[in-house]
Design goal:
Blueprint: H1 2-8, H2 15-37, H3 39-47, H4 65-81, H5 85-135, H6 138-141, H7 146-188, H8 190-211, H9 214-237, H10 239-244, H11 248-274, H12 276-302, H13 307-348, E1 369-378, E2 383-393, E3 397-402, H14 408-415, E4 423-428, E5 431-432, H15 438-443, E6 445-449, H16 459-464, H17 472-481, H18 485-489, H19 508-522, E7 526-530, H20 538-552, E8 556-560, E9 572-577, E10 580-585, H21 587-593, H22 596-605
Parallel strand pairs: 3-8, 3-9, 6-7, 7-8
Antiparallel strand pairs: 1-2, 1-4, 4-5, 9-10
Helix pairs in contact: 1-13, 2-5, 2-7, 2-13, 3-4, 3-5, 3-13, 4-5, 5-7, 7-8, 7-9, 7-13, 8-12, 8-13, 9-11, 9-13, 12-13, 17-19, 19-20
């Protein structure tokens, strides 16, 4: 129930629909019980005409309420029908039909209003999950499979709807139906109803035993679903490599192994769940059978119960079976839904380690520079950067070079606050970046990465991501600075051309120039370029490098370089090895020093 309570907090904005559902469910439960009780006068008219009441009965107290109501209805039927007994029968049939009509009308209205609550909760859970997914740090996704996250926001949320939220329909209606029915059953025969209560706890215990292992089995099913969705996501992302290395059969084998496990776990889960309904029905019919024997004895031998009341009583007893079965199925659903809710809440309740201070500063300008002071950082156990110091004055270009794994990209991740340093400070204009709001800090920066991250949308919308409500003229101007305008105009629909998933309709150089145009449109004072030309051919590199140089004019830039030819004009070149600075200076100074940098240049010149 702990997870159920946590999920229910999403129902607060829709509580008016919940109250309306409860109101109509109360009416449904009441009329459901009354519709069977109304059969008694009809049966009396049919089978015991001698029970006619010629004088209006007198109400003598609550204890005689049942007899008073029965006699009053018989009196009205007798008065209406006179000598024509068919008129009385028509009246009683009309009463039964009216009660059943009202019962079903209230049932529809209850379901109508709960629909808004269920779908509203579903929408809000998905929105909250998406917001959390976007806000969580990049480090969170280095440990999670993307397919598993997708499974949680899709199938797990649907499971919550089918299990937890379906309980909301039953939580008032079915217990009240049982309650009102039992009250009327007590009114007909206290002895017979007490006899029923001996069997209800026994049936409940048997059904409960069946449901105990459902959560564990459901958890395995949902986890396996996340695994095969991850395989699909990886397959689509690496389709070229899979085909190039003829690895289709290997990936198919991995996928089919996962779906076979899913098949096995699902069978175990559903077979256990399906056991609830026939078990509940058999136990219910068993109770009905015992009632027929016990009640028949009261009618035929003891003469303590009349036949019409007994028939109506059996209808009421059967009326308990449907809500009782629904409640037992709902209890199975809650156990099954616990696993899905746990996986959803794991995302929603994950603490974001990149937190803003309560009174964080909104930084809107950049005046003096970036100062990285004595920082140390590790992703897991080993430090990637150790006691690292670097100053980037405003308007200067600083290039970071070194072997793979030396910590170059880590610096970009720390300055943008995708990760927080373990020790030391990163300051902008003399203030620690942890004192700024994350949004205002990142507004100061433009990022161009080695992998051009584009979206399945038009050229215009991909560039426009850099600035909200950008005009078409601003987008075109940014594209011109990025040397992208000419190739864009050659596309089928120009700036309105869809570039496909991850921009796969474009070449590497074209994708990179769109990324640069996006950064140019943002027009930030600080530019971070993470190996922006390393994956390009010579011609594309020249066009991209020209675009980068135009973009970096009058800006503060941190350039992470793989090709050293692209950073010779940098104000300061910093050479890293194993997270520490081994050399720094201008291109000419470092060549003259005849150290690590010169060796790197010589290796690339070969």
């Amino acid at each position: 129930m702990e997870y159920f309570k946590k999920i229910l907090r999403f129902a607060k904005p829709y509580r008016k629909y919940g109250f309306l559902n409860i109101f109509f469910n109360i009416l449904y439960a009441l009329f459901s019980a009354l519709s069977f009780a109304a059969l008694i006068p009809m049966l009396d008219v049919l089978f015991t005409p001698e029970k006619k009441v010629l004088q209006e009965p007198v109400y003598t107290g609550f204890g005689q309420l049942k007899d008073y109501l029965q006699d009053y209805i018989n009196y009205k039927v007798t008065a209406y029908s006179g000598d024509d007994e068919m008129k009385g029968l028509v009246l009683v049939i009309g009463l039964v039909l009216a009660l059943f009509l009202l019962k079903n009308l209230f049932n529809y209205l209850a379901m109508y209003f709960i629909t808004f609550l269920r779908n509203g909760v579903l929408k809000d859970i998905r929105n909250s999950m998406y917001k959390k997914i976007v806000n969580l740090p990049i480090s969170f996704y280095s440990e999670k499979k993307k397919g598993d996250v997708i499974a949680r926001i899709t199938s797990d949320v649907l499971e919550i709807q089918h299990s937890f939220l379906s309980v909301l329909e039953l939580i008032v209606r079915e217990p009240l139906t049982i309650l009102f029915t039992i009250i009327i059953m007590f009114g007909i025969s206290t002895e017979l109803t007490l006899f029923v209560f001996i069997f209800i706890p026994i049936a409940g215990m048997i059904i409960s035993r069946i449901g105990k292992s459902l959560k564990k089995q459901s958890d395995r099913v949902q986890k396996e679903q996340g695994d095969f969705l991850s395989i699909v996501e990886e397959t689509l992302g690496g389709l070229r490599v899979i085909k190039a290395f003829n690895s289709e059969s290997r990936f198919y084998q991995t996928f089919s192994s996962s779906t076979n496990r899913f098949f096995r776990y699902s069978n175990q889960l559903l077979n256990r769940q399906n056991l609830a309904s026939p078990t509940g029905e058999f136990l219910g019919i068993l109770v009905i059978g015992v009632l027929l024997w016990f009640g028949g004895r009261m009618v035929l031998i003891e003469k303590t119960l009349d036949a019409s009341s007994f028939i109506a009583y059996m209808g009421l007893a059967y009326n308990i079976l449907t809500p009782a079965k629904s409640i037992s199925k709902a209890s199975f659903g809650v156990k099954k839904g616990n696993a899905a809710a746990e996986r959803v809440l794991e995302i929603l309740e994950t603490e974001n380690p990149i937190v803003e201070k309560p009174n964080a500063i909104v930084k809107e300008d950049f005046n003096t520079g970036i100062n990285i002071k004595d920082i140390s950082f590790k992703y897991e156990d080993e430090y990637v950067l150790k006691n690292f110091n670097l100053t980037v004055p405003k308007g200067h270009t600083v290039a970071l070079v070194g072997q793979s794994g030396s910590g170059k990209s880590t610096i970009a991740n720390l300055v943008t606050r995708f990760y927080d340093v373990n020790e030391g400070d990163i300051q902008i204009d003399g203030t620690n970046i942890k004192d700024f709001t994350k949004k205002s800090l990142r507004n100061l920066m433009g990022l161009v990465t080695q992998d051009s991250i584009l979206f399945n949308d038009s050229v215009k919308n991909n560039i426009g991501l850099g600035k909200e409500n950008a005009t078409e003229e601003e987008i075109i101007e940014a594209a011109k600075i990025a040397n992208a305008h000419d190739f864009i105009m050659g596309l089928p629909n120009g700036y309105n051309t869809n570039i496909g998933d991850s921009g796969n309709k474009l070449s590497g150089g074209q994708k990179q120039r769109l990324s640069i145009a996006r950064a140019v449109l943002k027009n930030p004072p600080i530019m971070i370029l993470d190996e922006a030309t390393s994956a390009l051919d010579t011609e594309s590199e020249r066009l991209v490098q020209d675009a980068l140089e135009k973009m970096m004019q009058n800006r503060t830039s941190i350039v992470i370089a793989h090709r050293l030819s692209t950073i010779q004009n940098a104000d300061n070149i910093v050479v890293l090895q194993k997270g520490e600075i081994v050399e720094q200076g201008s291109h000419a100074d470092l060549l003259a020093a005849n150290g690590v940098y010169k060796k790197l240049v010589a290796m690339q010149s070969l």
